[in-house]
User: Fold these one by one.
Assistant:
Number 1:
Amino acid sequence: MTVHSFQEHFDSKIDREVSIEPRDWMPDDYRKTLIRQISQHAHSEIIGMLPEGNWITRAPSLRRKAVLLAKVQDEAGHGLYLYSAAETLGITRDQMYDQLHSGKAKYSSIFNYPTLSWADMGAIGWLVDGAAIMNQVPLCRTSYGPYARAMVRVCKEESFHQRQGFEIMLSLSRGTEAQRKMAQEAFDRWWWPSLMMFGPPDAESPNTEQSVRWRIKRFTNDELRQKFVDVTTEQAKVLGLEMPDKDIKWNEERGHYDFGKIDWNEFWNVVKGNGPCNKQRIDARRNAWENGQWVRDAALAHAAKRKARTGETKAA
Ligand SMILES: [Fe+2]
Ligand SMILES: [Fe+2]
């Protein structure tokens, strides 16, 4: 086949919603876009373990500790499925780690904010995992097969994460005055950064159009953000918490909530590395990588010894 007909074959698969698999021909830019998106997503999962890991030893009860521990371990699993999916596109895990540790690769900026109180575990589960679900459910139908399949399991686990967060918020908001206040403060701190998780406005998101055409993305950033605002505003009523945005108002005509202006300067500032915890997060990952060197060395040495030994038995 000529490149031209390869392209036609690819396009027709996309049009017919037939998934693209690792051995299929694909345009270079499609491959590059996916490597960027999937590896960023994988990095976000493992960096995302850090703010919550901070509270495992201080969880208020054994039950809360067990749940949080399970949740943080799930995020490690998500990272691993996604690194594996990215590897099918021809990048190695070492290359991806290197991009993360050198600061070349991005990850979700939300994880550059600190977790100051126990209520942050509630707010993160409710809002951050909630926003992740909005972003990720459409990815279960994304055009690249390995990515779509990884997302099916990820989304099941994310919905548990969202519920555990909401349950923490519910307990706190029905608790003492001090607990209710702690929940409200966490809501106030995480609300705007959660809205930023959907990425820049459509008008300033140069990759969106192509990604929608390739059916990598199914909805634009603004569409997903609006959906999140609509759902979360209703959930806040159940919690009896006040919306951190005073401009939230139901718009009968649009059938959606209108909301206030997002501070995009803050967003870009955090993306550029100047958020409250950027340095701390990357340092933690780098240290984990360096401190784990002996484990990788030992595993390789063990594998080599075993190979030598089975080689000997076979020879005998
Ligand atoms: Fe996750
Ligand atoms: Fe999660």
Number 2:
Amino acid sequence: MANLIKCPTCGKQISSNAISCPNCGEVINSKMSKPAGAINMKDPVHFVGVVISILVILGVIVACVGTCTNSL
Ligand SMILES: [Zn+2]
């Protein structure tokens, strides 16, 4: 199922599965790797944010329990 697309550089019709244009060498599928890289870059940041949020909540709970225990 290879669709024909137009090369943005030379205008020649090439397969959409082609990594680069066989006529002029223009890289066709380079934009497909950019979104994946952006998502991979965001995931660790999002994960760290969630972990920090959980640690802050746990810290507040532990501090509250410790205060209550000391006051008794
Ligand atoms: Zn081309």
